[in-house]
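Thread: Modeling a multi-component assembly for a lab meeting

Hi all, long-time lurker, first post. My supervisor asked me to bring a structural picture of a complex we are working on to next week's group meeting, and I have zero experience with this. I have the sequence lines for every component (444 residues in total). Could someone generate the structure of the whole assembly? Inputs are pasted exactly as I received them:
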Amino acid sequence: MNKKIRVLIAKPGLDGHDRGAKVVARALRDSGMEVIYTGLHQTADMIVEAAIQEDVDVVGLSLLSGAHMTLFVDVARLLKKNDMEDVLVLGGGIIPEEDIPKLRKEGIAGVFGPGTPCEEIVSFIKKNVKR
Amino acid sequence: MKDIAKKVLQGDPRSIARLITLSENNDPKAIDAMKKIHPHTGKAHVIGITGVMGSGKSTLIYELTRIYREKGKKVGIIAIDPTSPFSGGALLGDRVRMTQLGMDEDVFIRSMGTRGMLGGLTSAVYDVVEILDASGKDIIFVETVGVGQAEVDVIKIADTTLVIIVPGLGDSIQTLKAGVMEIADMYVVNKADRDGVDQAVAEIESLVDITCANKDRKTPVLTTVAKKGEGIKELSDEIEEHLKYLEKTKEFEKQRRLRYEAELIEIIRKRLMNLIFDESTFKEKIEDLIDKIRKKEIDPHSAAEEILGKILK
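Re: Modeling a multi-component assembly
Sure thing. I ran the full set together rather than chain by chain. Output:
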């Protein structure tokens, strides 16, 4: 048996800044995970479809446009609708402090803003991955 | 979980995805399901796509898939990228070029890391081809890692192998002549809107003239600009032609036997390795033997015989 943690890193919506997503993707790769990168401009449906086909343990969403309350929540709900509650959903980008508890409530288990050390994300995943 | 094989046969995406994961994790739970689905395999046309990194393999698969979808064919795509030999992690980025296909329920894309396999494929790829085949896919693309010269394993699994080349490699085409340049059922010069395309085509055609002199099929050389969709229709026609050629000759049978031979050997290899390295008793034994080799109390060959003797007993 040789299980690896599989992570989907996706950029939902219209913002075109993916440097942060790429930095995180690389850090996760270097910690031994398999990272599937989907690229920019993904809809919630596309992200969930990719999560199903790739059978990932974690979905990481990055957004800097301010639409996280809509798009992150859409992804989390759609995962639930597809019986994928056991997928760990994480968010990153420019997320105001006051939105974080609301996102948690909707199932986004961890939110990581600018300046978060990559090791923190790695250890959060290793500790919280559900399957 | 109990009827995962049944659900795979019905084409259920989540079950397909799950069984692929079990297989690539070497989970014993996969074996029973794999046994059950095998009678339902063998129908899909497996197309291998190989070539240097950045040659446009993923984009070509995207464009070809669109043509197959217009014809109503169901498509499976296995996109392989390298696993880091240092961290064991991987960045699987082929999906980026194919996101438009993601919402089509008759297209299934799976990204895979090589997980220690050399040769351009990954150990579980034989299982994954069987899974996608059994799930009702008519066409299965196997995209290798970006290759150098010697990664030629794709011919063992593909009915039709496409070697993708880009103009401007110049002399490196020469160096590619052994290995990768020997495995093509057709050559595709992609990015053909760039300088040097005529030279690239000419070089490959002269290679074909030499190697195919006494053969009944001459390996075709096609040009495409995958990003603009140019030459894709011609390429897909040529792939169809190749399938007809295979079926008309003994080549098809030969190809399938080659695949099952490779698959059988891979399963045996994998299960033997699991036996040696997953059993903790052997792990300790191996550590112990390494110490002894270091102290010159035993030589590596005798140590290997000791381990093998225990397994074969």
